Amino acid sequence: DRVFLSIQGPEAWAALSRAGIETGSLLFMHGVEPRKNWFMSRSGYTGEDGFEIGLPEADARGLVAKLLGDERVLWIGLAARDSLRLEAGLCLHGQDITPETDPASAALMWAIPKDIRASGAFIGADALRAAVERGPAQKRVGLKPEGRQPVRGGAALFDADGNPAGQVTSGGFGPSAGHPVAMGYVSTPLAKPGTRVFADVRGTKIPVDISSLPFTPHRYRKG
Questions:
Q1: Per-residue pLDDT at 24
Q2: What torsion, rounded to 10 degrees, do the Cα atoms 138, 142, 147, 151 define?
Q3: What are 76-115's pLDDT values in tens digits?
Q4: CA distance 22 to 20
Q5: In terms of Cα–Cα distance, which of 182, 91, 190 is closest to 139?
Q6: Using CA atoms, how far apart are residues 127 and 101, in angstroms rounded to an integer?
Q7: What domains can you pick out in the chain, each with its CATH number?
Q8: How far apart are CA 136 and CA 187, in angstroms?
Q9: Nearest of 154, 139, 150, 163 to residue 208 by alpha carbon
Q10: Which letter does DSSP use for residue 29 in this model?
């Protein structure tokens, strides 16, 4: 009986305002109740400024009609959203991270505040401390394939000598970046940006350069 809507992009706030929904001074990862039984947060999984709204189905139809009456607003599919989250360097659970992945290997230590880490007062603290102390054997990195051919998740990575170096976990074409983009894990000594590895794509070795993440800058409104 409820609907979840996500509107993303630099003019999302303007489109909502035109539809009668004021976003005011709402900042990234903060939420409000703009109307009864509605909840809206300034969030999304695209790297762009945007909003996510949970509301009753009866109200959603009217809001969608107003939004689609704005020429700046279009429906997009999951593949389009996925290309944006990949350009933004955001992980897809089950693909880029799994229950077996530790935050140090996945470059997600920022998600655990330093004071929480220091206190050790959370489930998994001992396991995380051990992972940090021994250092990750592999690290999640950005991958920029040479040329225009995308390298998809599951492709094996090799170093310049042909030794196994890691694996691609997500890959596709970045429409905002203007070139193929991917993420994956490589042996820690190879994780420095600019290092060249090679992806096996149907028997052909595609040159791939280690890249910093994100491929396109985040545009969250943080204040």
A1: 86
A2: 60
A3: 999 999 999 999 999 999 999 999 999 999 999 999 999 9
A4: 6
A5: 190
A6: 11
A7: 2-75 (3.30.1360.120)
A8: 9
A9: 150
A10: T
